[in-house]
Amino acid sequence: MLLKLFSFLLFVISVYSAEEIKTEDDVLVLTKSNFQTATTDNEFVLVEFYAPWCGHCKALAPEYAKAAKQLAEQNSSIKLAKVDATEEQELAEQHGVRGYPTLKFFKNGNPIDYNGGRQADDIVAWLLKKTGPPAKEIASIDDAKEFIEANNVAVIGFFKDQSTDAAKAFLSVASGIDDIPFGITSEDSVNSQYEAQPDSIILFKKFDEEKVVYDGEAVDADIKKFIQTNALPLIVEFNHDTAQKIFGGEIKSHLLLFLSRGDKESFEKISQAARSVAKPFREQVLFVTIDADEDDHQRILEFFGMQGKEVPAARLIKLEEDMAKYKPPTDDLSAESIQQFVQDFLDGKLKQHLLSQDLPEDWDKEHVKVLVASNFDSVALDSGKDVLVEFYAPWCGHCKQLVPIYDKVGEHFKDNENIVIAKMDATANELEHTKISSFPTIKLYTKGENQIIEYNGPRTFDGLTKFVESGGADGAGVEEPVEEVEEDDDSTRKDEL
């Protein structure tokens, strides 16, 4: 009797707790008092930790609510919830929240990080993939129509026998892509409806050509590349939601079109010109538009050494080869010019575009000489002198701390005609023969054989002066003879856009 009473009380408490959880636009509002109940009584819960003042959180809010509504209309058991982390600081700290928004997916109370997109369709697709089979079973034409219509992008595998290697490869890819819904069918009527060949894969989308058929081999990597490439529009607009798909995708060569959305006519004209020639290149080059008017995008312009007055403009970047950049020979952004620029890039006819500042008239006035791309070789590679060069970034805190020490080193050697102390802003000047991946980087270019010796010692006056006076023996890194550096090697530095 007592056991029955105890069970009844637990039931009453759980019901009462559930009733206490408020909802806003189909999203559960969680606090410290109901968080545990919500994430354990519900098998699947996606929780957003947000701050009311966070711009990204405000942008996510309508998409998050839309996703919750879609799941509710599907009678899904998956719940979406949110926590105001500024009010529930203990909860946020408990779950390792370090920025906003942070999303975590709870399955039977156990959390994992959410790494999907921030559009409603992406959120729903990710959740359905995490809570069900990698591909939904399509049993009829109506099922197929409903599946295709419900998603901006959808992939269906047409396999009579799902035990074949081709079907297994398809399901393997499906299980590894969280933000795109996959379906699979063995029904002849569905095959006929969509004119699908046996063991074929078709990607359906609500933009561009709307239907694309995979005609490659049953290889996981090839199928994945086909899907991720064709799931994007011919022209992708760069923003917070698409950034991961752009830079984390299979295509590593990107045509970036810097446009001003404020100039609507120019924006549409150039976008359409690029779209008209993009399709033949889509397996090799991703076409991306960047609104140069956005404050968040100014860092990208700086990375390419561009100013707002240069917009509209185009650049090509090759991500897998140390951010090699290319500039078109003309400012014309007609379809013909864009097509020729991309084709010349693929044919290897373009020379890398290297950034360079103008040489200051007083570059050698101070004890620490100022180098730019145009005078670097004549100074640093002077075989008659030992030349110490600091490669720095203006925004680098460690570089700023080094300034007084490095100036003192310059003053120390000011009367030595055989030693030059110099510095170069490596964010604004790029060299064919030298790559810089961190700041500050300090290298000694020795006289005679012109060896390049990187300094790895303490950034102190004594450490640096001993390094120079020893010819690089004290505090030395790895020696790199100049003659071994290839002429067409990519320049300067890696950075995050």
**Helix percentage:** 25-40%
Can you tell me the residue ranges where pLDDT is under 50 for at least 5 consecutive residues? Answer: 1-19, 477-497
Mean pLDDT: 86
Describe the strand arrangement of the main beta sheet, using strand numbers: 1-2-4-3-5-6
> What's the total helix number?
16
User: For the CA atoms, what is the radius of gyration?
Assistant: 29 Å
Distance between the termini: 67 Å
C-alpha geometry: globular
Give the strand tally. Answer: 22
Structural class: alpha/beta
- Major sheet attributes: 6 strands, mixed
% residues in beta strands: 15-25%
Q: What layout of secondary structure does this protein have?
A:
Elements: H1 2-20, E1 22-24, E2 27-29, H2 35-41, E3 44-50, H3 55-73, E4 78-84, H4 89-94, E5 102-107, E6 110-113, H5 120-131, E7 136-137, H6 141-149, E8 153-158, H7 165-176, E9 182-185, H8 188-193, E10 200-205, E11 211-214, H9 220-230, E12 235-237, H10 243-247, E13 253-259, H11 264-278, E14 285-291, H12 298-303, E15 313-318, E16 324-326, H13 335-346, E17 368-371, H14 373-380, E18 386-392, H15 397-412, E19 419-425, E20 441-445, E21 451-455, H16 461-469, E22 476-481
Parallel strand pairs: 2-4, 3-4, 7-9, 8-9, 12-14, 13-14, 17-19, 18-19
Antiparallel strand pairs: 1-2, 3-5, 5-6, 8-10, 10-11, 13-15, 15-16, 18-20, 20-21, 21-22
Task: Sum up the structure in keywords.
disordered N terminus; six-stranded mixed sheet; alpha/beta; 497 residues
What does this structure look like?
The protein is built from 16 helices and 22 strands. It is an alpha/beta fold and 497 residues long. Helix 11 crosses helix 13. The chain is globular and about 85 Å long.
